[in-house]
Amino acid sequence: MGINDFGGGQTPDADVLVVTTNDVPGYQVQKVVGEVFGLTVRSRHLGSQIGAGLKSMVGGELKGLTKTLVETRNQAMERLVDQARARGANAILMFRFDVTEAMEGAAEVCAYGTAVVIVPHA
Questions:
Q1: Domain assignment of residue 39, given as a range
Q2: I need a labelling partner for 22 at 20 to 30 A (CA). Which of 36, 60, 86, 119 fits?
Q3: What is the pTM of this model?
């Protein structure tokens, strides 16, 4: 079952639906595969840290940090979906992110949820 079968807003080639809800309207959970996660830790380079420090003194968006966190989030989510796919799931329910500072200047991002197999309601 491809993502187009769900009518979701993800990329057309995605085969694993990722939602923050407990269910998907019009579908039932046929099998709970279990918890899945994608984890990555990223650090900012020195130039980005200096720029962010100066920018934080005057206010405004820290664009270098934002870019790093978006890339990190996407990588964690890719790993989450890869894990679910490898375990035979076609959806991830109750998707969440957890972000912590792993060390000075490094962010740990964990994407997690419950991998399931869903089928259309009969």
A1: 3-120
A2: 86
A3: 0.75
